[in-house]
Specification:
With about 425 residues, the chain is mainly α. Helices cover about 75% and strands about 5% of the residues. The longest helix is centred in the last third of the chain and has 60 residues, at about 355-415. The model is unreliable at about 45-50 (pLDDT under 50).
């Protein structure tokens, strides 16, 4: 089905832009006018090379985030302080200027100075923040814009600070569950490389001098050691190139979808990732709808927030269903991606008119699930990894010393 980009204006004169899928341009126009939108421009997207633009945008945004990497805790503190100072009667310019002068992080200090300068020139807070996508994401900018429109900026900044605190806490929990296994696997790889490159060659020289017949397992280990020591630089270069190609492929649409699908279906870690995404999805959508952001605009923002291509595609599909007239819970259900608990709470929220509060409860539920899963993983994975690392190293040591054991048994039988 073709995709069309559009630029429209609503009855209040607010301009909206985005993408819509339809059989033809007339069908796309009919969908937009059914939503009481005045069409300014609509045109079909040329999909022959459409992978290049999003790919380059993804690479550019990744580089921007790396360049302006700022701890989330610093952003939380800034948001909380800005809400407090603004509610005390200070202007946004003075508040941000004061916070920038006190900020210790050099990158954030520079960004805040530029934001204050842009506000002084006449830009709104959301417009000034939008110029720094590596620091302030789409959600941050959208909520700031919603606060400006509704005149409720202080409350929304407070809610945003609370949300970022919860997000920071969830990230810490997920990282704490993932860090130890990653470090243990890294340590295991280093140990194996050390034995293959330094220890086994010493034993192979001794065995060669003795002229002993080596067992098959030891011969395989010695051959692997010789291959590693003789071709270490080409292997290192190939590994680096493979990692770079892997990263670039993961930034493409199909590659990202494939890898994200694998991550979601990984035993144990996939459950943790799913629960974490659901926590972020429910909390963010609840905040957006509670702040008065339109449903379709909220879903467009959710596509950027979930940070997983599988859920991005599901949110995009749900947006199409909502545009066709389905309610939110039905649209999410038809994607066949979202869990039943989320769907039940969303359906109840729509029936009672308290969708944002029910989504907030769903976020709390998934936050507790993440916490419980991290605790279980920490309890079980640590001893299992210790046993695995010890077992692999013990196996290599036994295979290395196997000829010595055989020689000892031969000497005993000869005596």
């Amino acid at each position: 089905m073709p995709t069309f980009t559009y630029l429209t204006k609503d009855s209040q004169g607010q301009r909206n832009e985005g993408e819509i899928r339809a059989d033809n341009v007339d069908a796309a126009a009919k969908k937009l006018t059914a939503e009481e939108q005045i069409i300014i421009q609509i045109k079909e997207v040329d999909t022959s090379w459409d992978f290049i633009g999003p790919f380059l945008d993804e690479i550019s945004l990744s580089i921007e985030r790396i360049k302006n990497r700022i701890p989330l805790s610093n952003l939380v503190f800034f948001t909380r302080q800005l809400a407090t100072m603004f509610s005390a009667g200070l202007t946004l310019e003075r508040s941000i200027q004061g916070l920038s002068s006190e900020e210790k992080h050099p990158k954030l200090k520079k960004v805040l100075t530029q934001v204050a300068e842009n506000i002084r020139k006449g830009l709104n807070l959301s417009e000034a923040l939008q110029r720094h996508p590596g620091v302030f994401n789409s959600l941050y900018v959208a909520l700031a814009r919603a606060g400006e429109v509704s005149g409720n900026l202080q409350e929304i900044l407070d809610e945003l600070a609370t949300y970022l605190e919860n997000l920071d806490d969830t990230r810490r929990k997920v990282k704490s569950a993932m860090t130890y296994p990653v470090l243990m696997v890294f340590f295991l790889i280093l140990m194996i490389l050390g034995m293959l490159m330094f220890i086994i060659p010493m034993f192979s020289d001794i065995y060669a001098q003795l002229g002993a017949d080596l067992p098959a397992a030891t011969l395989m280990l010695v051959s692997g050691s010789k291959l590693m020591t003789a071709n270490f630089q080409p292997i290192l270069l190939f590994t680096t190139i493979f990692a770079a190609v892997f990263w670039l492929f993961s930034k493409t649409k199909r590659g990202g979808y494939l890898f994200d699908s694998i991550k979601l279906n990984t035993p144990v870690f996939g459950d943790l990732l799913n629960q974490s995404i659901m926590n972020k999805f429910a909390k963010t959508l609840g905040i957006l709808l509670g702040a008065g952001v339109p449903v379709l605009e909220s879903m467009a923002l959710m596509k950027r927030i979930v940070d997983n291509r599988v859920y991005e595609q599901a949110v995009e599909l749900a947006s199409e269903y909502i545009r066709d007239g389905f309610d939110i819970s039905t649209a999410l259900r038809r994607t066949e991606v979202f869990p039943s608990i989320m769907l039940q709470l969303a359906s109840t929220g729509e029936e009672t008119g308290e969708l944002s509060s029910l989504l907030d409860r769903a976020a709390d539920y998934y936050y507790k699930q993440v916490t419980a899963l991290v605790d279980r993983m920490t309890t079980l994975i640590e001893p299992l990894l210790i046993v695995m690392v010890g077992g692999v190293i013990a196996l290599m040591v036994v295979i290395t010393y196997l000829p010595v054991f055989q020689m000892g048994m031969a000497l005993q039988s000869g005596l």
